Amino acid sequence: MKIETVALREKAVLTAYVLDPSGEMPNMLVRPGILVLPGGGYRFCSDREAEPVAMAFLAQGFNAFVLRYSVGEGAAAAFPRPLEDAQQALALIRERAAEWNTLPQKIAAIGFSAGGHLAAALATMGTERPDALILGYPCILASIGHVLSSPVPSVDEYVTAETPPTFIFASREDMSVPVEHSLAFATALEHAGVPFELHVFGKGRHGFSLATPVVCSSRESLEANRFTAPWVSLCIAWLNELFGI
After folding, report:
1. DSSP string of 84-111?
2. Of 1, 35, 99, 187, whose CB is crowded by the most CB atoms within 10 A?
């Protein structure tokens, strides 16, 4: 596997995890890709939703790209600066697709919490858009802005028929980002005629990521979130069907 870190503008950094091609796997000489956008309230980028997520998709045959976008207080990190970072990252992946053995028109974006807001913004407002969208307990509505580092737009208002097919997962127990955010985006997709799949788990705390011992901070956290773990296999099946893999 090849790992490469590319500095974008300011403090944004893209890390590429590119699997080695092999003649023993001729159907995977060129692979689909996934751009990972961690959460963190636009204040930081969560490690739990970065490399571990990339590893999970790498194991399923995807090349993975983790973007640590502009975060923090002040104009230098306020929205839409993170969106500009994400657009630049996605454009770079497509530009270097041949070098990174990645299919340029089979690139998904996955975002968690505030990273979900960023992924949804990239797919609805971006000049460069992914071919599939995956949202994990996403911030969608402007009303969540009071807990983020700066105000944000309600991205459900930007959904059109051009928005890519979307997979959404969330927990009804989430007390940080209420499930109404996911429902609002799903409703907008339905009204626009965009294919989507929505999974709302009955249990699970905010920020469950993969819901594995690797990402859970304690045994208690693992026990509270274990019911959400199936989202990974459900998402992979959905992506494989969408991309014809």
Report:
1. HHHHHHHHHHHHTTTTTTEEEEEEEEEE
2. 35
